[in-house]
Amino acid sequence: MEFAILTDEISSRSAALAPAAGELSWRSFLGRLVLAIKSFWAIVLTGALPDEVVQRLGLARRGQAKAAPAAAQAGPAEGALQMLGILQRDARLIDFLMEDIAAYSDDQVGAAVRSVHQQCREALNRYVQLAPVIDGVEGTFTKLAGVELAAVKLVGNVPPQPPPGGVLRHRGWRGVKVDLPPLGAKASLSVVAPAEIEIE
Amino acid sequence: MDSRYVIGIDLGTTNCALAYADTAAMGDDPAMPPVSVLGIAQLVHPGEVRAEPLLPSALLLPGPADFPAGSLELPWDGADGQVIGRLAQRRGAELAGKLVSSAKSWLCHAGVDRTAPILPWSAAPGVNRLSPVEASRRYLEYLRQAWDHAMPETPFASQQVLVTVPASFDAVARDLTQRAAEQAGYRQVTLLEEPQAAFYAWIERHPGWREQVAVSDLILVVDIGGGTTDFTLIAVTERAGELALERVAVGDHILLGGDNMDLALARLVESELAQTGRKLDAVQLQSLWYNCRVAKEKLLDPESGADEEPVTILGRGSGLVGGVIKAKLKRADAVRVLLDGFFPEVSSQEEPRRARRAALQEIGLPYAADPAVTRHLAQFLRQQASQAEHGAVRRGASGLATPTHVLFNGGVLHAPLVRERLMAVLNSWLAAEGAAPARLLAGEDLMHAVARGAAYYGLARRGKGVRIRGGVPRTYYVGIESSLPAVPGLPNPLKALTVAPFGMEEGTQARVPGPEFGLTVGEPAEFRFFSSASRKNDEIGALIEEVGEEIQELSPIEVTLPASEGGGPMTPVTLETVVTETGVLQLWCVARDGRRWKLEFNVRERIA
Q1: What angle separates helix B194-205 from helix B449-461, to the nearest 10 degrees?
Q2: More reliable by pLDDT, A162 or B575
């Protein structure tokens, strides 16, 4: 038991088992040694590797469903880039938006837009569930009672107190659910679309 | 004990599907439990796993540089070095030479060694090829893993499993499929013919089916999959006062399917573009192929009044609008290429043409020489003209089989114009025979019917549903060289000994009456092996003097008798035929003292 306490202390000091490149770390060696000793005793005494070692070595226990790869914590920037990446991958939206289309005929642009539009729509429907803020008919009178005011923009002749209702000009959009796949390696996230090189 | 689930697997040329019936949900209700389709978890993009109703039969063998590290993780272990499913199909279009596709078509190609690593046929350097059997094994293993992931409480290996094969698969291809399933860890696997499965799916959807057919009706099942076309006739008979079903005929193997049709349309548009000086690369061709399929479906919908559909291929580089290629698929062209090319109006007397059409050839695979499905159908119906004792069917004035009902299966037959054309051609033949027009049975969910029907059949085997009687779908022979003096330059005349008669039922065995063979112990003995889909009257033991065109040669079968102590150098044996409960044909050599040896297919042998 004393042994286990000692090793815990040492391994916590050598938290990073893989040292930065170029740094010849005795600590990392020590860490590995400790891990090896720990594993040795655990196998001798209990017949199995301790959970901590399994986790640290990135192993999965046989016969046990592999845990889903831990999703990297996505900040707003990562989420935005990921969504752009998807729209580019499935519909080539970025190519379309970044291209100078002034020189092309409406006919040519129209042909491309049909394809981009349809695929954007499919991608959007797959990963993001959108719904109108107010599910009413545009151009008709709509009561404001029970409507979350922060999600409504009042335009026109707006009185100081919120009015009972008005004419619905735009139904608005609300993201009901976002179902993006888990993020991969962080380094690749800034790549919205990879460059393509063909080997001939 | 019976397993809780019955699993039906459609191992398709271009897509696989898995359906299952839950017997625990059945209770005391005599009605069949509902059959569900399993969403198959698969990589759809690098790093993105999603469950989809179909698993594309595409297997990619990526190199280390083809995907970002760690982006090919599956929710389960043991799939390293390969990608199966939607991502393989997508990325495979960009990585020619690393994609294995149409493995199933290779499985029944007697011209190659199907256990040798030959796929991808034109492999990129550094790619470790797979055999067609190994590729099939990997699809089947993948489906097992997907099930175990989705249903961890009820392991796949302890469920009853049915795997479908084309009715036209010969005994060798069935044996290879069975072998692939066993190597994939399948324990209780039974094979079922796809057109029968489609018919079971119809029965499952129509519990009142007995109202729709009557005794002596004849049902034609036309199954046009991605890569194969399959015909089957099912007769409605009577047994103990109840309606019974009997599969009375299956067609020859026709390597022709929906993929060929879409490709023909894409080639048409491509050649039009080529005339204006536009060349497409592999990725653009793939997109053209896909867009042509979508445009075709729109044009062939009778509701649509459009005379043409735009087919747009976006520019390849980041110049998307500037590089856009616009083409049009005209309705008249689609009708000409599809209906007149693949479903022409022909008389019932026409033979499929034999000349090869270069446009349909992919290197390696022996595609059907004649793309006209209607001519193949005419030949199939005419083959039933002989006065068959087994598999007797209703026939018209000229002897043509005259179906009363038609069931369609396969994605191509979604298109109403195609269905209408096929029915019109068939009914014109029936009218000439003095028979009433055939009625179309409404099939639904043509993409999953085979898997659903297979699950239903698994229940039927437990006595919980109607079962189609069928047995061996062909007559099988072994070759016997006659003992005439050899004529230089000519092979010895060959006779064929009937070893398995048409319709020999599952779970039966029979000794082949006739000659004893003297086999040399310790040396492999080889028999030439033949089959016929049209000769249905040959009884077991019957010797056919002349091996004509209606009898086709398959891979040879061989056995090596071990040398035994005290035995002589020659052992006299007789042949015995066994059809297992799971529908596999086996031939055994039986010695006088009762020792038995199983004959194995030798698929390594090459047949010209």
Answers
A1: 80
A2: B575
The count of other CB atoms within 10 Å of the CB of residue B410 is 25
**Residue recorded with tokens 């990129």:** B124
* pLDDT for position B483: 59
The band of B523, judged by pLDDT with boundaries at 50, 70 and 90, is confident
Mention every residue, 6+ apart, whose C-beta is less than 8 A from residue A196. Answer: none
Q: CB neighbours (10 Å) of residue B491?
A: 8
> Considering only alpha carbons, which residue of chain B is nearest residue A91?
B314
- Of B159, B162, B191, the C-alpha closest to B174 is B191
Q: To the nearest whole angstrom, how far is the Cα of A135 from the nearest Cα of chain B? A: 31
Determine how β-strand B55-56 pairs with β-strand B15-22. Answer: antiparallel
Partners of B161 in beta bridges: B7, B189
A114 neighbourhood in chain B, CB within 8 Å = 310, 312
Least CB–CB distance from A66: residue in B46, B77, B318? B77
Residue B501 has pLDDT above 80, yes or no: yes
Half-sphere exposure of residue A64: CA atoms within 13 angstroms, side-chain side: 7
Residue B151 pLDDT > 70: yes
Read off the pLDDT band of B234 (50, 70, 90).
very high
Q: B279-295: buried (b, 16+ CB within 10 Å) or exposed (e) per residue?
A: ebeeebbbbbbebbbeb
Distance of residue A116 Cα from the nearest chain B Cα, in angstroms: 9
Q: CB–CB of A185 and B69 under 8 A?
A: yes
Exposed e or buried b per residue across B237-257, where buried means at least 16 C-beta atoms within 10 angstroms of its C-beta: beeeeeeebbbbbbbbbbbbb
Q: Which of the residue ranges A16-30, B481-495, B521-535 has the most confident prediction, judged by mean pLDDT?
A: B521-535
10 Å CB burial of residue B122 (0-12, 13-18, 19+) is exposed
B100 close to B89: Cβ distance less than 8 angstroms = no
Best CA proximity match to A35, nearest among A4, A66, A60? A4
Stated as kind and residue range, the H or E segment containing B285 is helix B282-299
Q: What is the pTM of this model?
A: 0.80
pLDDT at A14: 38
- Give the pLDDT of residue B565: 59
Helix/strand/coil (H/E/C) assignment for every residue in B67-95? CCCCCCCCCCCCCCCCEECHHHHHHHCCC
Indicate the residue of B70, B77, B326 with minimum beta-carbon distance to A185.
Answer: B70
| Least confident among B273-287, B422-436, B532-546 | B273-287
Average pLDDT over residues B438-443: 88
Q: What do you get for the CA distance between the two ends of chain B, in Å?
A: 47
**C-alpha R_g of chain B:** 25
Query: In the numeric block, which tokens belong to residue B142?
Result: 């993948």
Residues of B with CB under 8 A from a CB of A: 45-50, 68-71, 73, 75-77, 149, 152, 310, 312, 314-315, 318-322, 324, 326
Residue B551, pLDDT score: 87
Query: What's the pLDDT score for residue A67?
Result: 46
As a whole number of angstroms, the distance between CA B471 and CA B508 comes to: 10
**Which chain B residues are Cβ-neighbours of A108 within 8 angstroms?**
321, 324, 326
Q: Residues A136, A168: contact at Cβ < 8 Å?
A: yes
Is B320 in contact with A181 (Cβ distance < 8 A)?
no
Q: Is the dihedral of CA B240, B245, B249, B250 positive or negative?
A: negative
Q: Which residues of A touch B75 (CB under 8 A)?
A: 65-66, 68
Write out residues in chain A with pLDDT < 50, as ranges: 1-26, 63-72, 186
Strand order in the sheet with B99-101: B83-84, B58-60, B99-101
Q: Tell me phi and psi for residue B488, to 5 degrees.
A: -60, 135
Say if the ipTM goes beyond 0.85.
no
